[in-house]
Amino acid sequence: MVPLSFAGHDFRALPEGALYWPARRALLVADLHFEKASWFALGGQMLPPYDTLATLSALTALVERVAPIELWCLGDSFHDVEGCERLPAQARAMLTALTGGLAWHWITGNHDSVLVDHCGGVVHEEAEVDGLVLRHEAEAGEPRPELSGHFHPKLRLTVRGRHVARRCFVATGTKLILPAFGALTGGLDAGHPEIVRAVGPGAEALVATERKLLRFPLAA
Length: 220
Known about the structure:
Shape: globular
Strand order of the largest sheet: 1-2-3-4-5-6-7
Radius of gyration: 17 Å
Distance between the termini: 29 Å
Number of strands: 17
Structural class: alpha/beta
Strand content: 25-35%
Number of helices: 4
Low-confidence stretches: none
Mean pLDDT: 90
Oligomer: single chain
Largest sheet: 7 strands, mixed
């Protein structure tokens, strides 16, 4: 974990794309997209059906390592509103073990705006926590400091002739967008006009490594 200061709060950024909030002992993740592969399968596009288990395994390992008492999911935790109903038994057991052991909060997103069965935890459209707004998609006109997801930002670079992509945070003084945590999520270029429009000028892409936070200015 590496220090990340935002809006007067001290966080820790993790290489996995999560954010830890020491003052609250809270872990924040975005865009898990549980059961995305099974959603595609419903339409005839067959993908390996292991994305949810892979995401839950990574999240469980992170919870065991960081030991939070709160966990906030910043929207699109399920790929569709019926995703929780399609959870395999093993995945459901892993998820309910997590939600039962933490103060678990689901922020709804555009994919999971109505959670019929949320497998434990508390559902919010958005929340304000210690002066920070937690929502799924950044609002360009929001004056309050805001944590969000939605865009799955990735920084793409060419290094020694090789194309490299890394999940990243996108930050300004009042906006912090988390990368997607899910195993089957892809990513949008951090400098994409839609991201820049959402966060405003002066944005940086932040890549967390094990030892440092790398900062890359994004063109307005």
